[in-house]
Structures are given as C-alpha cells and as structure tokens.
Amino acid sequence: MAEYKTCPYCGDAGIEPGSPFCGCCGKDIRQRAEPESPVSDNAAIVPDRTIHAQSPPGIPLAHVVITEGLGTGSSFQLGESTRIGRDRTRNQVILGDKAVSGAHGKINYEDRHFVYYDVGSTNGSWLMTPQGVRQRVKGPVPLRDGDKLKLGDTTLVFREAPRD
Questions:
Q1: What is the pLDDT of residues 57-70, one digit of tens each?
Q2: Which helix (H) or strand (E) holds 57?
Q3: Burial of 45 (0-12, 13-18, 19+ CB in 10 A)
Q4: Which residues contact 82 (CB under 8 A, 6 or more apart)?
Q5: Considering only CA atoms, which of 51, 34, 33, 50 is closest in space to residue 42?
Q6: What H or E segment, with its residue span, contains residue 128?
Q7: How far apart are CA 99 and CA 24, in angstroms?
Q8: d(CA 14, CA 51)
Q9: Residue 79's closest CA among 40, 117, 45?
C-alpha cells in the first residue's frame, strides 16, 4: 500500500508518493520543509503563529482564528474586504480544507460593522454565536466578537478589538 505524504503548505494528507506538487493547493513540495504561514504585505509572523498588523485607516482591528481544522491556531487580520477559501490566487484567508470551496466567503467592513457573506460555496457556511444560536448563512450576516463561522470542516472565530 502506498504511503501518502502531507503538504507542508496547506496540510493536505493525500499527496501520492513521488508527486512533486500538492493536488489541493498546487504548491511544489519537493523543497519545502516548514509549513508556510499566511502573511499579508503589512504583517509579521511571530512564534505563536498569530499575524500582527495595523488595521487599515478607519477600520477597527479584527481577525479570524482557526479553532478547528487544518491550520488550527492561525490568525488572519481582516481588512476592508477579506476573501476566504481554498484558492490561493483569489483569497486572503486560504484554507486547506477540501470541503471549503475555492471562493467560499468574504468578510467586508461596512457601516461600522464586519459582515460575512457566503459567495456561493458548494457546502455552505454556518454561523454559531457565543449564545449557542446556529444558522445557515443565506445573506449578509453582521459579526460580533466571539461568533464562529463553520466552513467545511474548518471553524473560524471572529475577534474584534474593543472600540474607543
């Protein structure tokens, strides 16, 4: 029986022996030894895998943290519009979860709130509030600190810094 390798970029565990590329993210895996962390142009990675950055002018500091699934513990800074999905070319938050669509969702900052949209994903998106309410996302959903988004087998928690 063939022993499959795990991609050091996205965590996909179904890479056939001898394959030079990941079938999930498309990266060349022949020379990469350390997992790649998602980084934006204005961010710096620190050992706890959290991305620290200044928020764009006029946008409060907020991020999503992966709490379940591939990349657990990774944190992603939110901007005016942050796209989420598996496709590395179209998204700022890249998830290596096969149950997540290439373009799954987006979080926009509009009217002084962060709002989540499912952008036509195959498996849908679910919102779970800290109060235990669970609902399928069918339109724009305003996010509050502590809300959880379930995309495929991945759970993201929305965190927003207190405002003055």
A1: 677 889 999 999 99
A2: none
A3: middle
A4: 76, 92, 93, 106, 107, 108
A5: 51
A6: strand 125-128
A7: 11
A8: 28
A9: 40
Is 61 in contact with 89 (CB distance < 8 Å)?
no
Helix (H, G, I), strand (E, B) or coil at 98: coil
Q: What angle do CA 130, 40, 114 make, to 5 degrees?
A: 35
Query: Three-class SS string for 2-23?
Result: CCCECCCCCCCCCECCCCCECC
Q: What is the DSSP string of 64-88?
A: EEEEESTTTT-EEE--SEEEEES-T
**Do residues 152 and 100 touch, judged by C-beta distance below 8 A?**
yes
Q: For the chain, which residues score pLDDT lower than 50?
A: 1, 32-53
